[in-house]
Write a structure and sequence with these properties.
The protein is built from 11 helices and 2 strands. The chain is mainly α and 208 residues long. Strand 1 and strand 2 form a beta hairpin. InterPro entries: DUF6308 (IPR046275).
């Protein structure tokens, strides 16, 4: 399995995902909405709400006081409404209408001092979890120079549609879904392939 500039075999990916699930239960419950992928896109998919801000704090968005009113007042309803909550990055080829809509939404949350790529990605992934990957300092290490903006979206999409990765991610999801009912990792069998990819990308970056 190729993720950014790194490689990982399926057995090791399963081991890493088990460890992530065991140590990030609050993230899976309150950010990812597991079990059941509840409230995909938030309680109001086309607006930023206090609920959204609370959920991204759980995954370490570290919002500042001044970020909160700015986020609540950003006029992004039109850009959010233009993208279905289940829109998939796999279907967003560069130059396509969906890719352009994704970048238009990304632009709406760009330029506020102190609200960088990591915070923005955690918010956008929450609102459109099948389209926007999460990024952080470790994921940036995994993806190198293609770790932000349109280039990052393109690079992650390439990994998602890579036929060998498609096969391996399907195997990962089958194996995660077959984990014992008491295993936290079983919850990860429900998340979008994109979320599995960004968890692994972060773990691979952290390991180097």
């Amino acid at each position: 399995m190729n993720i950014g500039t790194r490689k990982i075999v399926v057995d090791e990916a399963i081991a890493q995902l088990r460890l992530y699930a065991e140590t990030n239960g609050a993230v899976l419950q309150y950010y990812d909405g597991l079990p059941g992928m509840t409230t995909v896109g938030g309680s109001d998919p086309n607006r930023i709400t206090f609920e959204d801000l609370g959920r991204i704090m759980v995954i370490g968005a570290d919002l500042r006081v001044l970020d909160i009113p700015w986020l609540l007042e950003v006029e992004a309803e039109k850009e959010l409404a233009a993208i279905p909550v289940d829109a998939r990055l796999e279907d967003a080829a560069p130059g396509s209408e969906l890719f352009d809509a994704a970048m238009a939404l990304d632009d709406k949350f760009t330029g506020h001092r102190g609200f960088g790529h990591a915070k923005k990605s955690k918010l956008l992934h929450l609102k459109r979890p099948y389209l926007f990957p999460v990024t952080d300092s470790f994921i940036r290490m995994t993806y190198g120079s293609s770790s932000a903006g349109a280039e990052f979206l393109k690079a992650v999409r390439e990994d998602l549609v890579n036929p060998a990765n498609v096969r391996d991610f399907k195997l990962l999801q089958v194996r995660l879904s077959a984990e014992p009912a008491t295993s936290a990792a079983r919850l990860l069998g429900e998340v979008p392939t994109l979320r599995l990819l960004d968890i692994l990308a972060s773990l691979l970056g952290e390991a180097k």
